[in-house]
Write a structure and sequence with these properties.
With about 220 residues, this protein is mainly beta. The protein contains one helix and twelve strands. The strands form two sheets. Strands 1, 3, 5, 6, 9 and 12 form a six-stranded mixed sheet that branches. Strands 2, 4, 7, 8, 10 and 11 form a six-stranded antiparallel sheet that branches. The longest helix is centred in the first third of the chain and has 6 residues.
Length: about 220
């Protein structure tokens, strides 16, 4: 009796999640938001692994629902609190980082199986993210998005030049005034889903088996 065998290709994709209140760029602080009391609280694990150990998973991909949940609190400096319009205003974004990997368009390679001829390193735009909250105030709320294939690329979650105060809860507006998830949960909490489909309809199984990682940072910044 003859038996057939096939080798499963193991792909490990590790997402390291970080959250911080920081300047995260060249924009100078306006000193209207209280940096000391402001925070992004990550209530979910800060490391996520996607393991593809069958051809069906490789071809069908994986979706991780609600893998990152963040809560925001950002008060104004001193009285009055809450502030009048035009005082504390913030923006929130996600930044992708390949940990200074030599190829700026690709995931960091931790372990590679096989030679160069066995496939290519996955690019940063392979990862898809979807952001949502109870008031639907996120930009492109509940819509799948991809980072540009370059380390340091940004996906904006909240980024409006118009101040929308806490309590508005309007899906056509981006709440971005002083406030907290403790008092306005649906406006100051965000759920992030991740999706990764390694299979390419045109090129098939093109990625080299191995272990790869990237770092996703959530950045809260005063406008």
């Amino acid at each position: 009796m003859k038996t057939s065998r096939f080798i499963l290709f193991f792909f490990f994709y590790t997402l390291l999640i970080d959250s911080s209140y920081s300047q995260c760029g060249a924009i100078a602080p306006l000193n209207n938001c209280d940096i000391v009391k402001s925070d992004i609280i990550l209530t979910t694990p800060d490391q996520i692994e996607l393991v593809f150990d069958s051809f069906s998973e490789y071809k069908g991909g994986m979706t991780l629902m609600g893998s990152s949940i963040i809560h925001i609190k950002i008060p104004s400096i001193g009285p009055p609190d809450p502030p009048p319009p035009g005082v504390c205003q913030w923006k929130l974004k996600m930044i992708i980082d390949n940990n200074s990997w030599a190829i700026p368009t690709d995931w960091e390679t931790n372990v590679a199986y096989g030679g160069v001829a066995s496939g290519v390193t996955p690019a940063l735009d392979l990862l898809e993210v979807r952001v949502s909250n109870g008031c639907k105030t996120a930009i492109n709320n509940n819509t799948w998005q991809q980072f540009a294939p370059a380390t340091g690329s940004v996906i904006n979650i909240i980024n409006s030049g118009v101040l929308t105060p806490a309590g508005t809860c309007n899906p056509l507006l981006q709440t971005n005034g002083a406030g907290s998830y403790l008092t306005n949960f649906n406006e100051y909490s965000f759920t992030i889903d991740y999706r990764l489909i390694p299979y390419d309809a045109a090129l098939g199984f093109k990625y080299r088996p191995g272990r790869y990682s990237i770092h996703i940072k959530f950045c809260l910044q005063e406008m």
